[in-house]
Amino acid sequence: MTVRPRVATPLAMLLLGLIGPVVYVSPTSLAAVVPLAGLALLAACPRDQLLADWLTPAWVLGLVAAAALVTAPTALDAGWAWQRSARLIAELLAASLLIATLPRFGEPGLRAIALGFGVGAAFALLDLALAGALSGWARSHPDPHSIRISYSRGAVAHALMLVPLGVMMARRGAWGVALALALPGLGAVAVLTSLSAQVAILAAAVVLVLVLAVPATVWVVAAMPLVALALAPQIPYDPSGPLGCAVAASKPSALHRLHIWDFVATRVGERPWLGHGIEASRSLPGGKAVIDLKTCGPQAEVIARGEQVPLHPHNAALQVWLELGAVGVIAVAIALVLAGRRVVALVVRDRWAGAAGAALAASALSAALISYGLWQNWWLMILALVAAVHATIARPSLTRQSAAP
Question: Read out DSSP for 73-105?
C-alpha cells in the first residue's frame, strides 16, 4: 500500500487550482506552477507502474526536444538554439510529469482545475469592471486596453477547457463546478473579445456535437492536426486576396496574421530539412521590417502597421517547419499520430467522454494555429495541461462512471 504525505494531496489541489488564476494574472509564472503541481501530484498519487505511464509522454515529447538539438548546429544563432533546446528539455520533462500524474489524481484534479479557471476569469472580470483597480498597482500602463490584452492569454487558455471540461463535470453531476467554469469563462471571452478564444470555443462546440451525433467523425478530428502540419507551407495566405480584404476593415490583427504567414511560408523553403533553428523566428532576416496593413480597393487605406514577424509566426505548424524543418515536422507528426489514436480510442469506449476529448483536441488545435509562439513556456504548460486533462478524461474509472445512466 502506498503511503502518501498528508500535505501532498491538499498541496496538489491548491497548485492545480492556481493554474487558472495564474494564467490570467501572470502567465509566465506557469513555468513554475505547473512543474510544482506535477511534483505535488507525484507525491500524492499511487506510484504503481508510474514509470511506464511517464515514459510514454516523455519519449514522445523527447522526440521534439531531440529535433531541436539536431537542428541547433545549423541554426541562425547556434548558441541561442543550444541554450533554448536545453531549456526545452526541462520544460517537456515537466509537461510529461503532469501528463503522467494528473490521471492518477482523477476527478478531484479536474474539479480543482475547473474551479481555478472560474476564479481566474471572475477576477479578470471584476478588475475590468473596476477599471483595473485590483491590478493597476502592478501595471506600468493601467489603461483599459492594456488590461484587456494582459488578460487575453488567460481567456484563450480558459476557452480550451470550457466546453470539454464543462461537459465532463456536468456529465458527472458536478453542475456547480461546470457553471463555475463556464459562466465566468464565457463572460471573459465576451468582454475581452479575443478572436483566438472565440474560435477555440466554437471549434470545441462544433466537434462535440459532431462526434456525439456521428462518432466516426472523430477520425477527421484526429487527422486534422496532421493535415494542418503537412499543408501549412503550401497554403496561399495572400493578404491581398479575398480573405485579406474581408478581414482588413473589421480585424486588422487577422490581416496582420496573413502577412506573417505569407512571409514565413516563403522562408520555409530556404532551409527545408533542418530549418532556421528553434525560436529563430525572432531573428529572421527581414522579420523586423515594418509593414503597412491596408484595406483593399482603389482607395486603400493604411489601417495599422506591424512587424513582418513579431517574435513568432502565430502558427504552430508554420513555426515547426520554419524553425525545425522536416526533422521537426517528423517528430511532431509522430506525437500527433499517437495523440490522435488516443482521441479515437476514447470515443469507442465512451461516446460522451470521447466527444469531450475530441472537443479538447479541436480547441487546442484551433488556438495553436492562430496564436502564440509554440515555445513560449506558459503556452507549452497549457498544452501540457490539455494533454493531461485528456488523459484524465480517458481514465477507465472516469469513463465507466460517465457512461453510467
Answer: GGSTTHHHHHHHHHHHHHHHHHHHHHHHHHHHH
